[in-house]
UniProtKB/TrEMBL annotation:
Pfam families: Aa_trans. GO terms for biological process: amino acid transport. InterPro entries: AA_transpt_TM. This is Amino acid transporter transmembrane domain-containing protein. Residues 43-447 form the Amino acid transporter transmembrane domain. PANTHER family: OS05G0424000 PROTEIN-RELATED (PTHR48017). Keywords: Amino-acid transport, Membrane, Transmembrane, Transmembrane helix, Transport. The keyword rRNA-binding does not apply. It is found in: Membrane. The chain crosses the membrane at residues 49-68, 74-95, 134-159, 165-184, 196-216, 236-255, 275-296, 316-340, 368-388, 394-412, 424-447.
Length: 463
């Protein structure tokens, strides 16, 4: 390593030490607001990065992969899953390389919008990347609360089939629990929660695979039909809707914020964390998608767990379905609080005083109130709009596809300016163009699906 790189790394480490100690700079003349100081503390190891990454990517949305396969078929489904894994692993490494480069130059970027502002200009950070990231992350919080309410209701009905408690009651109960978790002060403070989350995602994926194998070999399984249903128009839009689902499943949207939690020097740590994360990704995504689609074919429901119940009765061992729902429910709490961090960071920036201590009464009171109100809003939307799955497809198409597939390639090309005669420039350009086009088409497909399902929508529906 050259003396310049050593000096840059030393500056980076000293700046982070200032940040952890309550200083107000990261790099030369770089001011930090309360959100960066208090929420994005840089204290973690690469293992902690791996825990955060796994929780943000390997979430219960993976139980929708058999449904995506139903619109794609075997060959296209496996190919899309492989492409999704390959492109996101590559893209997340591109973002990490850009972040490491700027840290070595004396300016450590802690947020996605900071990257956009520094690399593309202030308008990109303020009017494009920032709003899209906030929409995606807060939408994920709403989805987690809704899915958790549905899991709680499923557990309730398995135990009491004649029960009459409505879905919105379970959503509200989980919302109260989320309010408590939301008070964890920083992203780094979630490291142990996210380690448990990693174990939970492996557990419910294993249970889902076991349930699929059991169902696929029982006489209660639907006929194994792997043909793609619908007319030509439905099939075409179904393909793009399935791509949006897969993009949402692989989506992250908070790579810079996650990398911000690691202690300096940052070089190489994200790659190790991604290797840990994608070991879990490949293990869970492919096993659940393939076993689930094998078991139910084109009869796959929006989530595989719905196929495990027919007319309110379990078609796999009841105990297995119960623990699968329980593991899913518990992990949703971790996923929800991870995706709440960008909201917490914004709220902290607005309402906290960076010159006071993180636990000063001046900062604790607005933190408690603002985070509770944010979760209350998400809970209200989840209870009112239990068909949020359709809207989540739109968020995935409009948000995750550009943020996680297209934007990293653009950031890398603008920052490092690779030669146009080399492969890297054209690979990145191709990824940016193809996935930007897919984002537009998949957004249209998601809007169409919302329009088709609109007649079934009902506020506070008990689904």
């Amino acid at each position: 390593m050259g003396s310049g790189a050593v000096a840059a790394s030393r500056d980076d480490e000293e700046a982070t030490t200032k940040m952890e100690a309550g200083g107000d700079t990261v790099g030369q003349n770089q001011k930090l607001d309360a959100g960066a100081l208090f929420v994005l503390k840089s204290k973690g190891s690469w293992l902690h990065l791996g825990y955060h990454l796994t929780t943000s990517i390997v979430a219960p949305a993976l139980l929708s992969l058999p449904f995506a396969f139903a619109a794609l078929g075997w060959a296209a489904g496996v190919i899309c899953l492989v492409i999704g894994a390959s492109v996101t692993f590559y893209s997340y490494n591109l973002i990490s390389r850009v972040l490491e480069h700027h840290a070595q130059q004396g300016r450590r970027q802690l947020r996605f919008r900071d990257m956009a502002t520094d690399i593309l200009g202030p308008g990109w950070g303020k009017y494009y990347i920032g709003p899209i990231q906030f929409l995606v992350c807060f939408g994920a919080v709403i989805a987690c609360i809704l899915l958790a309410g549905q899991s709680m209701k499923a557990i309730y009905l398995l135990s009491n089939p004649s029960g009459t408690i409505k879905l919105y009651v379970f959503v509200a109960v989980f919302g109260v629990f989320m309010m408590i978790l939301a008070q964890l002060p920083s992203f780094h403070s979630l490291r142990h929660v996210n380690l448990i989350s990693l174990v939970l995602c492996l557990a419910y994926s294993l249970c889902a695979v076991a349930g699929s194998i059991y169902l696929g070999n029982s006489d209660k399984a639907p006929p194994k039909d792997y043909s793609i249903t619908g007319d030509d128009t439905d099939r075409v839009f179904g393909v793009f809707n399935a791509i949006a689902i897969i993009a949402t499943t692989y989506g992250n949207g908070i790579i810079p914020e996650i990398q911000a939690t690691v202690a300096a020097p940052v070089t190489g740590k994200m790659f190790k964390g991604l290797c840990l994360c994608y070991t879990v990704v490949v293990t869970t995504f492919f096993s659940v998608a393939i076993s689930g689609y094998w078991a139910v074919g084109n009869q796959a429901e929006g989530t595989l767990l719905s196929n495990f119940m027919v007319d309110g009765a379990a078609v796999i061992p009841k105990w297995l379905l119960l623990i699968t729902q329980l593991f899913t429910l518990l992990q949703l709490s971790a996923v929800g609080v991870v995706y709440l961090q960008p909201t917490n960071e914004v709220l902290e920036s607005f309402f906290s005083d960076a010159t006071r201590g993180q636990y000063a009464p001046r900062n604790v009171a607005p933190r408690l109130l603002s985070r509770s109100l944010a979760v209350a809003l998400a809970t209200t939307v989840a209870a009112m709009v239990p068909f949020f799955g359709d809207m989540n497809s739109l968020i995935g198409a409009f948000g995750f596809l550009p943020l996680d597939f297209a934007v990293p390639a653009i950031f890398y090309n603008v920052t490092f300016k690779p030669s146009k005669r080399g492969a890297v420039f054209w690979i990145n350009t191709t990824i940016a163009v193809v996935f930007s086009a897919l984002a537009v088409i998949a957004s249209v497909a998601a809007v169409r699906q919302i329009a088709l399902d609109a007649k079934t929508y009902k506020l506070f529906a008990n689904v």
